[in-house]
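User: tokens in, sequence out, please.
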């Protein structure tokens, strides 16, 4: 049992004398006077009831007890010194945690295959739990730690929520293979066709309809639903058109007989942001995941 009110600095002195083998060398390394080192050893000898070192000529030879405890002393002192090091590196492999993400299904489909492959190979101790979250609920969920990170369109938040732009998503036209519009892709032919609109419950602004309004035209919505996969399944079998984010369109193209092409008019890019609560700003694991998601976004979106 450690003696009460013992000065832990005495163990730094003990370790240095043990390593240097003399009071003079230990004093020089510790930037202390030789009498100060000698006094420190005297105090420790009294606390531990052992001579600790025996002088043979100019050498300080450790006692049997000193030799017995030195491995523990060296480890303990090294651990304490490491906490003061400027080159401390966060090692995610030493942590086990579930990270809770707020993703829409489109982002789950894009991010999760490469993300989970990386985690399973390198950090299997980190697990992911994802769920869709409405924009009006996002801030509360982050504040109450129901979610760690949310990725979504630009959304107004309070100063308690930190955010960063991770990409600007472009829109593309997606239609069945062999669709007549592919032979004459114009704004006029675009608005003549029937369209599928994917709209979320909390969506108030549609980028496509706003862009069309700038040209003084509107499109005919024949079907409105909440999932791009379902919408793509529909347009793969008929002549309806679907306008959607380009990254997900190219992903669905690999799974269904559809074509992806540019739109015949300009549409502003859709800014995609990552959000986290201010209380998680200094959380090393949250920061590690934010960095990983940002890098993935640059590669995928």
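Assistant: Sequence out:
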């Amino acid at each position: 049992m450690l003696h009460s009110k013992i000065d832990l600095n005495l163990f730094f002195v003990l370790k240095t004398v043990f390593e240097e083998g003399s009071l003079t060398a230990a004093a020089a390394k510790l930037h202390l006077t030789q009498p100060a080192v000698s006094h420190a050893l005297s105090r420790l000898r009294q606390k531990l009831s052992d001579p600790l070192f025996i002088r043979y000529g100019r050498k300080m030879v450790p006692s049997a007890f000193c030799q017995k405890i030195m491995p523990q002393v060296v480890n303990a002192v090294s651990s304490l010194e490491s906490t003061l090091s400027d080159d401390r590196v966060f090692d995610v492999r030493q942590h086990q945690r579930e990270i809770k993400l707020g993703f829409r299904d489109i982002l789950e489909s894009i991010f999760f295959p490469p993300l989970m492959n990386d985690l399973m190979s390198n950090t299997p101790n980190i697990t992911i739990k994802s769920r869709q979250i409405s924009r009006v609920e996002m801030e509360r969920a982050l504040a109450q730690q129901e979610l760690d990170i949310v990725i979504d369109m630009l959304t107004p938040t309070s100063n308690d929520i930190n955010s960063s732009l991770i990409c600007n998503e472009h829109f593309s036209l997606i239609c069945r293979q062999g669709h007549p519009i592919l032979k004459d892709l114009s704004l006029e032919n675009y608005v003549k066709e029937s369209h599928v609109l994917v709209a979320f419950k909390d969506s108030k602004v549609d980028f496509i309809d706003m862009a069309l309004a700038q040209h003084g035209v509107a499109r005919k919505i024949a079907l409105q639903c909440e999932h791009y996969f379902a919408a793509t399944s529909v347009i793969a079998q008929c002549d309806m058109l679907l306008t959607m984010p380009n990254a997900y369109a190219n992903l669905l193209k690999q799974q269904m007989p559809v074509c992806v092409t540019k739109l015949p008019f300009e549409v502003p890019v859709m800014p995609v942001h990552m959000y986290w609560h201010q209380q998680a700003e200094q959380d090393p694991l949250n920061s590690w995941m934010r960095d990983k998601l940002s890098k993935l976004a640059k590669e995928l979106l």
